[in-house]
TrEMBL record:
Gene that specifies this protein: pfp
Key words of the record: Cytoplasm, Glycolysis, Kinase, Magnesium, Metal-binding, Transferase
Gene3D superfamilies referenced in this protein's UniProt entry, alphabetically: 3.40.50.450, Phosphofructokinase domain
EC class (word): transferase
Cofactor list: Mg(2+)
Pathway given in the UniProt record: Carbohydrate degradation; glycolysis; D-glyceraldehyde 3-phosphate and glycerone phosphate from D-glucose: step 3/4
Name of one Pfam family that matches: PFK
Chain sites annotated for binding substrate: 140-142, 192-194, 248
Protein name: Pyrophosphate--fructose 6-phosphate 1-phosphotransferase
Catalytic activity: beta-D-fructose 6-phosphate + diphosphate = beta-D-fructose 1,6-bisphosphate + phosphate + H(+)
Listed SUPFAM superfamilies: Phosphofructokinase (SSF53784)
Positions bound to diphosphate: 12
Length: 427
């Protein structure tokens, strides 16, 4: 008997997360001899625990197609609920839901934490005698999934689009700063990236020839606020202006940090921004130019803005979803679909698989060799790595009456069979 499918998403959204979802759906839907009905966990694993399953097979075909141009997990939702090893009731509940709805395939789209969850669920299913295939689909704008040698995965879906966002926004910021520097000589921009500097580093893509007075400070730069101020003033003496891109994880002291359910600092919810701390310091200690430093703190706009999405990112996210479903169709469980770069001067990639437990226990750092000796720039090796990921053209965003047309997934829920349940972490 054919088994049904559940796909769910976890963690922070990205511009292309729904493209991976569509890739999984399209492949499964094209193979009805293997896959049964396709369901989605409403807001990730929380929806699975609550038995809130959206019937994707019952959706209009055109709405599924629009998923590739719908950002931020708006189709089926995501969550920041972490299944911890001690939460045995939750794990047993997941298995009960799978059994109740004849689930034989579980796809989880997310980062390291999500791959750990997918791995634990797949293993528990085997222990419980459930015939389940568990496969992960990679996602994170931070590009911190995998290893620093790029052998597990070259880059994650979402990063190319956020990199493009920063390349284009720094270009525009430079135009403004160049025109207004007599009054506002310093502009400080805050980029996402708690510990890993791939996002702020992408600002260099706006100016690969280094013609702008641009300084980039990642968490890994290990530069102090006084050193940053000295660097900025050196640039002001030379150029009369300076654009500073600073990681949200840059150490500025106490910002009244708040944390999410994964234990990660939620910078957008903290009491003050890193941008404001840097701006305050620069203005209080004095600039070697007339005028003041100003700050700009893009927030979740970086990970939800479809207009800036990379066409390369959209396509690769979709193919990684297809690859995940292909892995499952072969009866292979406990893997994540992955993307690896081929050697050579022309950018090309291949798709493969990697064990979930390898991904779950991995951690990628920004290569030290990609940080310039002055500690506020990146090397050409990084530019060569990241440049192909942002693509060449604007995405073909569908518009109706001048505004974006997103997928509209109808709330067609699968009838609930089990008693109601409150997840352990929400009690």
């Amino acid at each position: 008997m054919k088994k049904n499918v559940i796909v769910a998403q976890s963690g922070g959204p990205s511009p292309v997360i729904n493209s991976t979802l569509r890739g999984i759906f399209d492949f499964c839907h094209s193979m009805p001899d293997i896959f049964g009905d396709i369901y989605a966990g409403f807001h990730g694993i929380e929806g699975v625990l609550k038995e809130e399953l959206i019937n994707l097979s019952a959706q209009k075909e055109e709405e599924i197609q629009y998923l590739s141009f719908t950002p931020a997990a708006g189709g089926i939702g995501t969550c920041r609920y972490k299944l911890r090893s001690s939460q045995l009731e939750d794990f047993n509940r997941v298995i009960d839901v799978f059994k109740a709805h004849n689930i034989g395939y579980f796809f989880y789209i997310g980062g390291n934490d999500s791959m750990d969850t997918a791995n634990k669920v797949a293993k528990l299913a085997v222990e419980k005698g459930l015939d389940l295939i568990g496969v992960g689909g990679p996602k994170t704008i931070d590009n911190d999934v995998g290893d620093s040698e790029f052998k597990i995965i070259d880059h994650t879906p979402g990063y190319g689009s956020v990199a493009r966002y920063w390349a284009l926004n720094v270009q525009n910021a430079n135009e403004e700063n160049e025109g207004s520097y007599p009054a506002d000589p310093v502009l400080v921009l805050q980029a996402m990236g708690r510990k890993i500097g791939f996002i702020p580093a992408a600002a260099r893509l706006a100016d690969p020839k280094r013609e702008m007075p641009l300084q980039i400070y990642m968490t890994e730069s290990k530069v102090t606020l006084p050193e940053l101020a000295d660097n900025v003033n050196d640039e002001l003496r030379k150029s009369k202006r300076c654009i500073v891109v600073v990681s949200e994880g840059f150490d500025v002291g106490d910002i009244g940090a708040r944390k999410d359910n994964f234990g990660h600092i939620a910078f957008g919810a903290s009491q003050i921004s890193v941008t404001q701390a840097v701006v305050n310091y620069l203005n209080e200690h004095g600039l070697k130019a007339k005028g003041l430093a100003r700050g700009d703190t893009p927030g979740t706009d970086q990970r939800r803005n479809m207009i800036y999405a990379s066409t390369v990112d959209i396509e690769e996210a979709y193919k990684l979803g297809q690859e995940a479903a292909l892995i499952a169709s072969r009866g292979e469980s406990g893997y994540m679909s992955t993307i690896l770069r081929n050697a050579g001067p022309i950018y090309s990639v291949r798709y493969d698989k990697v064990p979930l437990e390898v991904v779950a226990n991995s951690e990628r750092f920004f290569p030290e060799s990609w940080i310039s000796p002055n500690r506020f720039d990146v090397t050409d090796d990084f530019i060569n790595y990241a440049r192909p990921l942002i693509g060449e053209n604007w995405p073909a965003i569908p518009l109706v009456n001048g505004i974006q047309r997103y997928a509209r997934i109808e709330p067609i829920f699968v009838p609930q069979i089990l008693p109601s349940y409150i997840p352990q972490g929400l009690r």
